[in-house]
Amino acid sequence: MNRRSFSLLICLVLVVFLNTAVCLDELRFYLRSEPKTFNPLAVADDSSETIRYLTGGVLLRLNRDTQKLEPELATSWTVSKDGKQITFILRPAIYFSDGTPFTAQDVKYTMDQLMNPELHSPTADSFRSGNGKVEGTVLAPGKIAIHFPAPVAGLDRLFDQVAIVSSQSPRKEMAALGPYYVFDYKPGSYVYLRKNPNYWKRDASGRQLPYINAIKLEIQPNRDIELMRFSRGEIHLINAMDADYFDRLSTSSPAMVHDVGASLDSEQMWFNQVSTAPIPAYKLQWFTSRNFRRAISAAINRDDLCKVVYNGHARPAVGPVSPANKFWFNFHLQPVRFDPQAALQLLRQDGFQLTAGKLHDRDGHAVEFSIVTNAGNRARERMATMIQQDLRAIGIAVNVVSLDFPSLIQRITQDFNYEAVLLGLVNVELDPNEQLNVWLSSSETHQWNPRQKTPATPWEAEIDRLMRAQASAMDDNTRKKSFDRVQEIVADQVPFIYLVNKNALTGISPSVENAKPVVLRPQTYWNIENLKLAVERASNGK
Amino acid sequence: MKRMRVAAVTLACALVLISVAGSFIPRFNYSRQDREHVNCGPSCRHWLGTDDLGRDRFARLLHGSRISILLAPAAAAVSMLLAFGIGAIPGFAGGFAERAAKTAIDLVLSIPWLFLLLMVRATLPLNTSPAASVTITFLVLGLLGWAAPARILLARARCMRQAEFIILARSTGVAPLWLLCKHVMPNLRPVLLAQFWISVPIFILSEANLSILGLGVAEPLPSLGSLLRELETVLSLRADIWRFAPPVMLVLIVSSLQIAVSEREVPQ
Q1: Cβ distance A476 to A218 under 8 Å?
Q2: pTM
Q3: Of A340, A402, A487, B165, which one has the fewest beta carbons inside 10 Å?
Q4: Taking 90 as the threshold, does the pLDDT of residue B201 lie above it?
Q5: How many CB pairs under 8 A join A and B?
Q6: For A188, left (φ over 0), alpha (ψ -120 to 50), or beta?
Q7: Interface predicted TM-score (ipTM)
Q8: Inter-chain contact A376–B127, Cβ cutoff 8 Å?
Q9: Smallest CA–CA separation between A376 and chain B, in Å?
């Protein structure tokens, strides 16, 4: 080997070594789809939300563990008694990732941009409480008041979603105040985040956070690939995984998976109660009967659903709020007990008769209906098949129909040509205001009977009143009283038959330190600043 | 080679016999859920273990095979009938009818069949029983699967139109309908039969494709396709080989039919 070849070899080894050294301090996990935007104010999809969480600096942050608000860029805040104004005292000497200073003017600019109707921001919708303009007033360089035209319930919590953008930076929304900034993006392949050199947080020893220098978010919709690469240690985090995958990993690598308990998400079914729906009148009469709905609910074995479909990683659902929502859940409510005899008793009260193993209504119609669910969702298809067997025991014939999602949505929102539906509800927010669109009878997404001009039933009118009352009250305890009552009415009238709350099942590589998975999103990296990679610590020790 | 064909036909007959006869034995209940024994291995009670809802895999395999084996030929028969009507008759007639038939065939062949099936499936009434649903699924497959055989029949009928014996028959004043029934049909029969036997496994696999998407046979009725869904994820790579019984059955059925057909003397 001559001298030139030897030099070349040394260079090659150095390049490989340096490259490896950089890669060692890189957290990797998957985005399941392409991020639609990098503008934190226009976020409407999961992948963009992930990037917003990792790069965006917010005034207040909801601690995903304690479910309480904590100051971030604002050191303190006050909400006026009428709920129309919030005033923030800002943290001094903060800089964006590109070195631009952070001022109250940026907060004003952010709110102006956010509330711009042309942006069509879903985040802004939560702030729109009434007609009129949202205005920010800079009271001092470090103090700003934001005025709303009408009271906004849970106003301060909404700021967890508002990433502040710079009014002065030439990089505009790409200048970040969060722990990371977008360094590179290759469409269809990955988003590469680098540590924000100006991030303001320090740990107890005074070391600047975050500990991890870079995050590589690879875009990969295939969950099988995600699982394989995770089990091989090639990616570090999985935010949510199926029960089957979870059990498989918990057998081979128990330290890598965490069942954090019931999540906010629920699986539920409901009957079509739209008076103009193209279904027979006698069936509409069944579906609008409280006793019928309660009977169906009592005849479903939720414990079996949890055990068989989710391998025990779920719990019977109680109502619209999961027990994981520590403040808003009504702890007086209990899951519906599986009791086929009680179900038959309720049905008899409505004139149904069980003869020769088949249930008939008072006019002699055999009780039979279809449950529609979305094709490809194996868990829902399995639940529907189990419900089919449960209801067969009380003489009801159920046809399980899987439809492609667009056809299903067309049926439940436009044609109303369905009898019962089994679907899930993904809850991201804790506040009941986020469910207003489901509970108000005039709403498009009041699924069992949407777009009512006037409430069809007294109990729906009562829910409307209570939901409006809680939305306009400023005191959380007063709001909770109203929402507790809503939960009780829902449990009594059963417009939705709540089935299960799935557990939050996460995967965290043992090389990730300080991880503390929680049920709220983002389950695994909510405390991203504090996460460390074991190799990173070792290299620092050197 | 004849021995091979005999073996294939015997195997196909045996599979048909086992699945049809076995599915009538009450012991093999395909829908009963034993929720205390989910995803169990083979035992005296469950010869191939249980599926993810605690249902007997062997019973579901018998019923699923019966459905696929019986309904796929029925769908193929519907398909051949349409293929003969749309392909062979215009092909023999020639002129505008032939051009129209070719256009129709090209049009149908260019349609992505999966999306068409999804659309047809979505417009079906929801309250159809599982038995009706599976019949409709195969009927739809039969109604949509005629185009490829029709093109072959059309080409064959066109060749026959110019054959000497047909020209001779025409010149002696034989009526077109008589020509079709007495001279064309017997000559097309081998092609028609070959296409029929080729279509049977195609329809079994098409139903399997639909079922893998969750759009085939409705629960709790099994079919070979719906049974294959157990193998759709990486979890299927587990060591429990009895989960592979449905694909093995499918391969056996399709292969035996293919061998039986390919060993037949197909006219040139």
Answers
A1: no
A2: 0.84
A3: B165
A4: no
A5: 75
A6: left
A7: 0.81
A8: no
A9: 6
